């Protein structure tokens, strides 16, 4: 399972594909949520872009999203504080 709840916070295990044609949450990929982003994986651009993209998807401030692990990896563990919305593609129970 690629997600878990810690009280009101959503913890996501994500597999990021940088330099894609579009920003999109693709869906479940084994133990990860696959996310495509257009930013290149250099100088932290992909991480910043990922946080901006997810903030829009979950309707939270950018400061409500933190990368817990995987700062320099395509596999990341993210924490989203009190998400206002869960994107339809995720279908969480």
Short structural summary:
With 93 residues, this protein is of the alpha+beta class. The protein has one helix spanning 45-58; strands at 3-6, 9-17, 24-29, 32-36, 65-69, 75-80.
How would you describe this structure to a colleague?
- By secondary structure, this protein is of the alpha+beta class.
- Helix content is 15%, strand content 38%.
- The chain is built from one helix and six strands.
- The longest helix has 14 residues, at 45-58.
- It is globular, with a radius of gyration of 12 Å.
- Belongs to the UPF0235 family.
- This is UPF0235 protein COA96_01620.
- Pfam families: DUF167 (PF02594).
Keywords, separated by commas or semicolons:
38% strand; 6 strands; Conserved Hypothetical Protein Mth637, Chain: A; 93 residues; alpha+beta; 1 helix; six-stranded mixed beta sheet
Whole-number radius of gyration? 12 Å
Query: What level of helicity do the residues show?
Result: 10-25%
Q: Please give the alpha-carbon distance between the first and last residues.
A: 11 Å
Overall mean pLDDT score? 95
How does CATH name the architecture of one domain? 2-Layer Sandwich
Question: What series of H and E elements makes up the topology?
Answer: EEEEHEE
Low-confidence stretches: none
CATH-assigned fold name of one domain: Conserved Hypothetical Protein Mth637, Chain: A
Question: How many β-strand runs?
Answer: 6
Strand content: 35-45%
Biggest sheet descriptor: 6 strands, mixed
What structural category characterises the helix and strand content? alpha+beta
Q: What's the shape?
A: globular
Determine the number of helices (DSSP H or I, runs of at least 4 residues): 1
Report the CATH superfamily of one domain.
Answer: YggU-like
> Would you state the CATH class of one domain?
Alpha Beta
């Amino acid at each position: 399972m690629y997600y878990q709840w810690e009280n009101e916070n959503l913890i996501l295990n994500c597999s990021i594909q940088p330099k894609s044609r579009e920003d999109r949450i693709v869906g479940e990929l084994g133990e990860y949520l696959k996310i495509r982003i257009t930013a290149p994986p250099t100088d932290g651009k992909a991480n910043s872009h990922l946080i901006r993209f997810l903030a829009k998807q979950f309707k939270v401030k950018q400061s409500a999203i933190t990368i817990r692990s995987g700062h320099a990896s395509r596999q990341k563990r993210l924490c989203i504080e009190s998400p206002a919305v869960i994107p339809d593609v995720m279908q969480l129970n």
